[in-house]
Amino acid sequence: MPSRPHPAHHEVERGRGAPSNAVPQRFGLAERLADGDWLDEVETIDGAAGRRRTTVTEEHPRSILTFNTSPDIGFDRSINAYRGCEHGCIYCFARPTHAYHDLSPGLDFETKLFAKPGAAQLLRKTLAKPGYAPRPIAMGTNTDPYQPIEGRYRITRAILELCLEVRHPVTITTKSDRVLHDLDLLEEMARRRLVAVGISVTSLDPRLSQALEPRAPSPAKRLAALARLAEAGVPTHGMISPVIPAITDEFIERTVARLAEAPVNSAGWIMMRLPHEVAPLFREWLDVHYPDRAAKVMALVQDMRGGRDNEHRFHERFKPQGAWADMLRARFRLALKRSSIPQRRAELDCSAFRPPSLDGQLALF
């Protein structure tokens, strides 16, 4: 099965993932048209509209640590230092969150970004509260903490510096080798059992990955980052995520083998999810890149999701059903059996936590 995307009669904007910028109708918002104010936000060449510029708005929320009670995910608190993500992954399940702010989950999500520069100080205030009980903070659960603007804002680094200071455990999920910029912190945190890092690899074909994740680092760079983290003693988890039927599933066995070479401590896979506006955006993407098999891909997706584009119910959303899903599980299990991946997840230490004072000094008691 060929893995490279095919050219189509129309193309997405170069370097972006979403083919359009429609505003969802769930909230009664006006349709977004490619004229008017939109033209003020794109570069122009000889008077003609060119590429859309990335803009970053700084925001200052009252809190930064989000708690959840979802019964089918492995963390109860998380931090998202950024909203929107310039990686532009077409399948990103976080895209619909932009609709809550009168913005499109399409191109707006990957070009109109929001940063929270005061995140570390807000977290300090939370950790200093009497009665705070530590459990691992998950970073990268919504948008990537190491997307390109982290190079400018360094918010993720500031949060890690605080967590190392107060001995608070953290888990990181990313698809960027930019995580290596903080290797000095991660090495020290790993020695104290305070961190684990997961990196997702969607395919091994750089051209396909560029179409799926236009501004994310190449698969080779992500695999190299996992190897460097492992060499430094940082617990690592390799994720084949998401698996897209008839597009990326051909890479399962080879990716497991490459993850074993890193070597990662554990590996897993997640089937693509298409909540809300992600489904029509992904259908548009298929029409652009894979018109010859778009119907087949969506038929397989629906076969694994009970006849729908997406399954939203707890305990069901991460468990695709049907013959194709069973086959993918069997393939992954067999590939894992052939590999040397120990499937040993990191056990992080919450016992060393020491609350900070608000002036930046550690409390004595």
TrEMBL record:
This is PA0069 family radical SAM protein. SMART domains: Elp3. The keyword Chaperone does not apply. SUPFAM superfamilies: Radical SAM enzymes (SSF102114). The keyword Zinc does not apply. Residues 75-300 form the Elp3/MiaA/NifB-like radical SAM core domain. Residues 1-22 are annotated as: Disordered. PANTHER family: SLR0285 PROTEIN (PTHR43432:SF3). Keywords: Iron, Iron-sulfur, Metal-binding. One of its GO terms (molecular function) is metal ion binding. Pfam families: Radical_SAM.
